[in-house]
Structures are given as C-alpha cells and as structure tokens.
Amino acid sequence: MINLLVKNNFFLLIVLSSIWGSAFIAIKVAVSTINPISLVALRLVIGATFLLIYFKISKKTFVYDYKTYFYIFLIALIGNFIPFYLISWSEIYIPSNLAGLLLSIAPIFAIILSHFFTKDDKFNLLKFSGILIGLIGTVFLLGLNDLSLFFEGNFILIPKFAIILAALGYVISSIIAYNLKRINILALTTLTTSFAALISLPFSIIYEFNNYTHPSLISLVSVFYLGIMPTAIAFLLRFHLISKAGPVFLSYVAYLIPIFAIFWGYVFLGEIVKIEQTIAIVFIFIGIYVGQKGSNVKNDLQ
User: Fold this and answer.
1) How far is CA 182 from CA 27, 123, 185, 188, in A?
2) In this structure, are residues 83 and 170 in contact, taking their beta carbons and an 8 Å threshold?
3) Measured between alpha carbons, how far is 190 from 193 in angstroms, rounded to an integer?
4) For residue 43, how many C-alpha atoms fall within 13 Å in the half-sphere facing its CB?
5) Which one, of 289, 285, 112, 82, lies nearest residue 192 by Cα?
6) Which of 54, 104, 124, 211 is the most exposed place for a label (fewest CB within 10 A)?
7) Is the pTM of this model over 0.70?
8) At 61, phi and psi to the nearest 5?
C-alpha cells in the first residue's frame, strides 16, 4: 500500500503541497526575529547539509560538464535563492496565507512560457482565455484599493509583486530542470540547494556584520523546519515529479498550496481569508483549468 502511494504522482503532489503550504507559516514566525537574508541563508545551509550527508551515504558522485553546472547554478539562483528571499521579505508585510495565495499565479506563467519554450504548445483561444481569467483573479488578489494607492505613489503592493516574481522564478527554474533529465534527482537537488546556500552566505554575513540578529527559540525551530522539510525533502519531491510527470503537472501544485496555506495559517496563526481573496482564487483556478484544457501537453495524474 505504501509503495503504491509513493509511486503515485498525484499523492506525492498532495504531500508536496502540504509541505510547501506549511512553509509560509514557518517563514512568518521566523522573520519576526530573523532578517530575511539570514533566514534564507540558514534555511539553505541546513537543507544543503542534510542533502550532502544523505548524498554521501548514498555513495553517489557529481560528474558533469561545465554547461550542466551552469544550468544547475541558474536553477539555484532563480528557483531557490531569489524566490526564498522574496517570499521571506514579503511576509514581513503580508499574512502567510496571502503569500500562499499569490503563488497560485505560477501555472498562468507556465501556460504563457510554454508558448515560447515548447514546439507544440502554442497559444490558442482557450489558453488565451485562461490567461485573461487568471489575470482577473490576480487583480482581485492584489486588491483594487491597493492598486489605486499604488498609482498614487503608495508602494503597498511591492511585497505582493515580490511573491508573483518568486512564482515566475519557480516556473522558469522548473523548465530548466525538466531539460536536465539525465541528472540524478538527488544530485540535482543537492547541487541546487548547495549552490543556493553558497550564493546566500556572503549576503547574510555582510548583513549580520552590520546588524546582528537576535533570534528567538521559536524562530530557530521554524528555520530548522524550513531547512529540512520545505527545502530538502520538498525539493527532492519537486525534482522527482518534474522528471516523472513534467513541469506542467508540477504546476498543479498551485491548486493545492493555497488551500494548505490557508489551513495552516488559520490553525497556527489564526489568519482569516478575505472575501475578495476567495473570489480571486476562484478566478485563478478557473483560468488555470481553462488554460490547461487548451494545452496540447497532457499529463497523467497516475
């Protein structure tokens, strides 16, 4: 029974969504006493250490050409370091469940980018309609009042735009990872996490040298959880699903992450979802569904 579940891509997608959904509350707790850049560095170092130990026990080796290492570095930068920092910084200003809701825009980016990076999945009426519907939902999620304030010079939307930019980074890095099929999943996860940790360390050291952090115990526990579960374990699952089912299938995670983000945010932080956010997520989900119905790339949920 357990083996059947482990081999079922849809079950693994639910597990991944639950883990990533829980990351938002852990980040919210951690940034209360830890600067975002130091949080990212600690998270990545913990995750990389865990993966390197596991990699060593597995007796595997890294033997790739320079071009492959360059692509892995890009994945680490675009899919780990930058999104982690943007999300962590944003959660200083916005609720954890809103951060999870904003990441639901990722499949819309996947539908758009598939037009440019695939040969047989170009724009059609359904895909274009799905994108428009999803964008309407995004406008609701950003908040009509916040949009008007933004054009008046109030930059309250910046943290929300940062989350959307993080979502774009995840999608682009997934497309790059999908083209590295010959690389072992464990090796790819270990290398990207390790590269991202190395990228983050200089920034963290410079910041801490000038602004020493005094983290609370609960923040440190949250960082440790982030390093092991949403970083090391979740990214192993992420690359496994990319290699087995492709980046479009992985984008289905956006249906589930907001649900788990809302659930964990309510259970642990007492966060409430506003009516306009509910409307927004409905529009985005409909947009994703319509856009993917128009896609020529099909994925088996089994």
Assistant:
1) 33, 29, 9, 10
2) yes
3) 5
4) 32
5) 82
6) 211
7) yes
8) -135, 160
